[in-house]
Amino acid sequence: MPKFGVSFYSYQHAYRTGKLDLEGCLRALSQIPGADGVELLATQTPPAAYPYPTRAEIEKWNELLEKYHLVPTCFDSQYPGHDLPTDPGERETYLRSEIEYASKLGFTSMRLAIKDLPTVEKCLGYAEDHNMVLNLEIHVPMTITGKDVTEYCEMIDRTGTKFAGIQPDMAIFLHHLPQRIIDQTLFGGGDPKAVQRIAEAFAAGECMEEVCAAVKQQYPDTNLGMLPFFATINSHPSKPEELRLIAPYLTHFHAKFYEFDENLHEPYIYYEEAMGVLKEIGFDGYLCSEYEGQRMFYGGEEPDEIEQVRRNHAAMHKLLD
Amino acid sequence: MYFTENMTGQEQVSTIYEGGAAVGIRIRVKNPTLGMSLSRLEDFSVQVDRTLYPADQITFVLRGIHYDFQTMQTVATVRWEFGEWAELLVPRPGGLGVVGNRKLEVSIGFRMGFENIQWRKKSFLVSAIGETL
User: Fold this and answer.
1) Which one of A43, A137, A140, A180 makes the best mutation probe of the B interface by having the most chain B beta carbons within 10 Å?
2) Cβ separation B34–A82 shorter than 8 A
3) What is the pTM of this model?
4) B112 touches chain A (CB under 8 A)
5) How far from each other are the two terminal CA atoms of chain A, in whole angstroms?
6) In chain B, where are the structural domains located?
7) Phi, psi of A41, deg, nearest 5
8) Per residue in B74-98, pLDDT tens?
9) A89, exposed or middle or buried, with CB in 10 Å at 0-12, 13-18, 19+?
10) Is 3.20.20.150 the CATH classification of the domain at A3-175+237-320?
11) pLDDT in tens, A246-290
């Protein structure tokens, strides 16, 4: 049976607008039945000064975890820039510093930012010394059967390491564009016909690179915001049954979602199917909520992140029990 | 865009006075992205009506410490955290003026994540005498 947690990415709007501080996020998580796992990004909700935490901050963090009976699970590493350093020594130094920071705060796995195989292999010993599993996240536009994942699994087999694994993001099973991003684009002035073309093409599985290029040419003056990027990056979905291929390597899961309705249904992602496969293969790692729908709100409407995460957990329990 | 909506706005703008004279405009800005070092700020500017104030004319204030743009490019250990407010001090004799409205556009560019340079821009009107529009 999986374990359950929340990535504080899910509470980013509340945190950013001052409605929740770090302790508030911990408290919100502690109020979800059956959930005890904490996941976070230090670039959003740092538990202590990043990247050099003080002893007092670490002690305070541990006190808070004990107060709310929570466990640090996965630390989401990020590299602050699109162009990763080319110098191998610099890449290794950065990954080691991330492992050290995460380890000091009690995390036992890491979603990698620096993830090239030579660097990861060099750091496996350091990861083992710090009890840190280095996870390759399968995030769009990656696919379960893609080269990156295949090579990472081969590396795990070749080295025999217990300190590397795979963590998929549920959005790799997206089948329709979320209505909110469509509405957000229309609110921003997107031509309705252009937006409709993109939404329908996505649902039909067309080549979104070509469709978006054609739409931009046909409607050069319309503001389509993030829609073309979102549609393109999500246009190569994986199939839930493919999770069986990587079952031995699964260590963690990002329960990404855009919106759960009152009936605990996520209309845009194959949640039921994916949960069914995870149940069959006996996945026993953490499923950590990653709500991203708040980024699609507009016009001053406020997302209810706490309620959305609550629904996510209720849905997961319903599908797994 | 989500992060741009509450990056700044008319309620975050005020006139700076020195010795009783209006000398500039203070604009509070919320970090429009994830936590980053100051050196990741590629560029920023403020346009007031038709006048553009580039980064090297603006003072960036974070947690009470004033930075000029050239210095910021070298500061890798001070971070502008997620959700944190900073201030842009724009030197402008007369500040917001005494009548009418000013149109402001605040632009911030940074090196982060999925694209080489990401830009966040917010345009809005602000009243010269501080009335909410």
Assistant:
1) A43
2) no
3) 0.92
4) yes
5) 9
6) 2-127
7) -110, 135
8) 998 899 999 999 999 999 999 998 8
9) exposed
10) yes
11) 999 999 999 999 999 999 999 999 999 999 999 999 999 999 999
